[in-house]
Design goal:
Helix content is 26%, strand content 24%. It is built from 10 helices and 22 strands. The longest helix has 21 residues.
Length: 427
């Protein structure tokens, strides 16, 4: 058995874990980062990422959840959209992240997409114009994207970014390592060790065999699905319930005439007027087609031969936290009646926009129940306090699992800001 010793173990390298590790390493703290996945750089920027970096699971009720298992976590495969923290963090828990959000936006140059990105997007522009004619406002989205490096006709954010235009938490992992942190990849954490209510280490399995890391502090940041599993295995009660995942419906249709959203970047525009219930926006043709395949909507497959005429949209639901993650990795997640009603309203609105934009109504296919932001499973007020500490002394959680309810929008900016504030308070 291999053994290590350190001050802090950080489990997971997504936006929460990578930020904590970076901030602690900058303060010359001893840090070991444990990551279940491997880098597999050969898959970045192409569909092989689905095999190399994705973990895709489906609930018994048909909800599909995608997450990234690789250094950088799900930021390697996210669209790169940046939303401010949900108001409940400040209103209900007294967590004000305004200063940290401002710092992160400045540091990472988070801005709405520039005009030149969509000047040559005929399909997306038609959707935006059609939405406006129907009383909706699809606005340019703030993103973790360096527009000077980005190819506006790439639309491969969900495969990873070969050009380095999209910020990912992998850059913070690299920063932490440069500051002296130790990174172990291919490391499957099996248990957090604790004695008399206090953390004293982590047990894991690696390619080289069992690994035990002794430490005085653990920051668990394995995500909304990984974190509750590890808590279950460690004999820590209360985790795994109240699961949400911001499920999407992805729509695909064929234009009557002219081109669709082929080679136009996904999620550059969105209507946020009903944020907290749902948001909807544009999807590139390839991503909209792939979503139909992922959801096993095989009737849409023949349309792949007419890819340049296809147009996509999404509806992202702020779902109720009614699911559960079990110790064996299986999970329960279904749409509640409220979820079904709101999703139906969102789909109806998106269909109307597509038809107004020139899509043939009879060609619209809907891939429903594709989740992307798992959380709620170790929430504040149930598993952790506002200091992010569990009942086990010096065991903290810093990922989307600590959110008590869904914010309904991508949480990456919130998690970076939260992790930065949290790390600043650690001795």
């Amino acid at each position: 058995m291999r053994m290590m010793e350190t001050g802090t173990v950080v489990i997971g390298t997504g936006p929460g874990g990578a930020t904590v590790a970076r901030e602690l390493a900058k303060k010359e703290k001893r840090v070991v980062l444990l990551e279940k996945g491997k880098a597999r750089d050969w898959s970045v920027g192409n569909p092989l990422a689905y095999a190399a970096m994705y973990d895709i699971r489906r609930s018994r009720q048909g909800i599909l959840v995608r997450r990234g298992i690789t250094p950088g976590g799900s930021t390697m495969i996210y669209s790169g959209n940046a939303y401010d923290p949900p108001s409940f963090l400040k209103d209900d828990f007294g967590i004000d992240l305004a200063a940290e959000v401002s710092e992160v936006k400045e540091e990472l140059n988070i801005r709405p997409v520039p005009d030149h990105f969509y000047q040559n997007y005929p399909g997306t522009r038609r959707l935006v114009e059609a939405a406006g004619e129907l009383g909706h406002a699809m606005k340019p989205q703030a993103r973790f994207i360096d527009s000077a490096l980005c190819d506006p006709h790439c639309d491969k954010c969900l495969f990873g970014c070969k050009r380095g235009a999209k910020w990912t938490a992998r850059s913070y992992v690299n920063d932490a390592v440069d500051e002296g942190a130790r990174l172990v990849t291919g490391c499957d954490v099996r248990e957090i060790l604790h004695v008399n209510g206090m953390v004293n280490g982590v047990s894991a399995q690696t390619d080289d065999g069992p690994l035990t890391v002794f430490c005085h502090r653990v920051v668990l940041a394995a995500g909304g699905m990984g974190t509750p599993e590890i808590l279950h295995w460690s004999g820590i009660k209360g985790a795994g319930t109240h699961f949400f995942t911001d499920p999407m419906a992805v729509l695909l249709g064929e234009m009557k005439e002219g081109s669709g959203t082929f080679r136009e970047i996904t999620y550059t525009f969105a209507d946020e007027s009903r944020k907290g219930e749902f948001v909807f926006g544009n999807v590139g043709a390839v991503n909209a087609f792939v979503a139909q395949v992922a959801a096993k909507n095989f009737s849409a497959l023949p349309r792949g031969a007419r890819m340049k005429k296809l147009t996509g949209m999404f509806v992202k639901l702020c779902d109720e936290p009614t699911g559960e993650i079990r110790a064996d990795g299986s999970f329960h997640k279904a749409f509640t009646p409220k979820d079904e009603a709101l999703m139906a309203q969102g789909i109806e609105a998106a269909k109307a926009v597509m038809v107004r934009a020139g899509v043939r109504p009879g060609t619209i296919a809907v891939a429903k129940g594709i989740g992307g932001h798992p959380g709620g499973t170790a929430a504040m007020g149930r598993v952790v306090g506002t200091d992010l500490q569990t009942d086990i002394e010096n065991l903290y959680i810093c990922d989307n699992s600590i959110m008590p309810v869904s914010g309904g929008t991508p949480p990456v900016l919130t998690l970076i800001a939260l992790a930065r504030q949290f790390a600043g308070k650690l001795a």
